[in-house]
Every structure is written in structure tokens, then in C-alpha cells.
Amino acid sequence: MSAKVEIYDRRRAERIEEQPAVTGRDCVIAETDGSMVPIVVTDKNAEDRRKGKKYSWKEARLCFAHIPGETTLKFGAEFQEGVDEAGKNLFDCACRAGFGVGTYLHSVGDGAPWIYGQIEKQFGDQGNYLIDFYHVCEYLEAAATACSEKNGAKAWSNRQKALLKEGRVEEVKESLKPHLEPEETEDQHAPVRSCLRYLHNRPGQFDYLGAQVRGLPIGSGEIESAHRYIIQAYFSCGNLLGLVNGKELLSKGEQANTEIRPYNMLLKKGEIGVDYGVLPSILKITKHLDTT
Questions:
Q1: Are 242 and 278 in contact (CB under 8 A)?
Q2: Which of 225, 139, 222 is nearest to 187 (CA)?
Q3: Which one of 82, 90, 147, 262 is most buried, by most CB atoms within 10 A?
Q4: Contact, 133 vs 164, CB < 8 A?
Q5: Percentage with pLDDT > 90 across the chain
Q6: pLDDT digits (tens, 9 = 90+) for 71-87
Q7: What pTM does this model have?
Q8: What pLDDT score does 76 carry?
């Protein structure tokens, strides 16, 4: 057994030990994704704090889990703590939603390796990761012109989408191969090669037929929209972005001399006030959500 396999098996065993020793719900949907958060850092000791502002972007990773058909979602978030912490948050959300022994864990994402890696690491054989259908369609549409006759790009693209939904991904790959660009063509000018590589590098992540049979989503719009209505809701309050889920954004020394606050057009125009107190959690302001 290779060292890589041994490490994976050990980590998987560790996660299994943490799973609730109870029979879980039949199925849990769990998704995660990251988005960039704009912030402003100002010097507390500056005579005029309007000057010398530092603008930057930090990544926040949001996750949720719920039972299919239910509208009550279990949310979690992390801020710059790394993909392993994001995976643990997702695992925690899934457990709160009903994940346990025998549960089928369904997740949809845009194909980011860290997301699939965490589904595999946290849930093992119970985790099933599906590439967002509309994301892979963008690759097919980009390759369509090169793979079809004049004015036939739309028909070709629709045919490939239908094949994917029928679970015939290998046929889609074969339809791409005769149209591959020369090796010397740069990737940015080789949509067919990029599409084939995308499909080839993600084996087992295109089971749209299986998801549809189970009545499960094939798109990741739910987590993408959650970023808008949770994180943007936080920003609209104009609160200090100092702690997220109890984790410090800056070191103690940096906090002593800086103020951090979200930066958006409302704050820039001075249309809402700024509360310089520290919020312990990014979810505290989303009172309509179940965070238990």
C-alpha cells in the first residue's frame, strides 16, 4: 500500500470515529464554496483615519446542509482557516442535518479540487460529489463551434448536454477527440482540449442520471445564492469584520493598531453607520436561519 493510500485510510478512519454512532437520515445534501470578501484596514492611531486606508480581499468559505425537500438549512462558515477547517465545518453541518450511519451524502460544486477533496476526506464512501451541470455546460459551449459544422454549434452542444444527463459521459469525450487542437496551441485558444481535460480529470463526478433518479439537484445555485444573502446581509449591517466563528482575522498586535470593517458602496457613501464592536460570528445577523 502506498504512503498516499495509507494517509487517506488513516484520515478516513479518524472521520468515521467522529461520526454519530446512530443511523442517519436516508440522504443529506451538503455544499460548500468560497467567495472573496472586500475589507478596509485603517490605523486606529492616525489623526485622520480617512487617510492611509488599506484595501484587500479575503476569502470566506460558507457551507450548508439539509434534508432533501426541507427548507431548514444548517449553516457554517470559516474565514482564511484553510480547506481542512472548511471540510470540518461541512461535516459538522451535515451531522446537524441528519448525517450518520448509512446516509447518502450528496454534494454539488464547480469542480474546485479542494471541495471534492474534502467530500472524500470527510465522508469517505458515503460522500457523492457532482460537478455543477451548468458549469460543465460552459466548457461544452466553448468547444461547440470547433466540434460542429457551420451554424451547428447549438445543436451539437445540446446533444452533448443530453448525453451527460443520460450518464453517457464517455460518448461526450469521444465526440471531442477528433477536434482536439494541435499540441502547440495555447490552452487559452484550445477550448476542445480544455473541455476534454476537464471531463477526464474528474472521473465519477458527472452522474447526473443517478442524481435525477434520486430527485437530487444537479446545480450548485443553492450555495452560490447563499453567499449573496448571508455574507451580503452581514456587510449591509456595516459591522466590524474582526472575528468570524470566533476566529481572529488579525493577530493581537495588529488588532491593537487597526480597525477592520467591510467596504461597500453603502459605507463609502456614508448611508449607514458603522458599529466598531466585534461580532463573534458571521451568522449572528442572519436571524432567519437555523444555525443550531
A1: yes
A2: 139
A3: 90
A4: yes
A5: 47
A6: 778 887 776 678 898 89
A7: 0.72
A8: 79
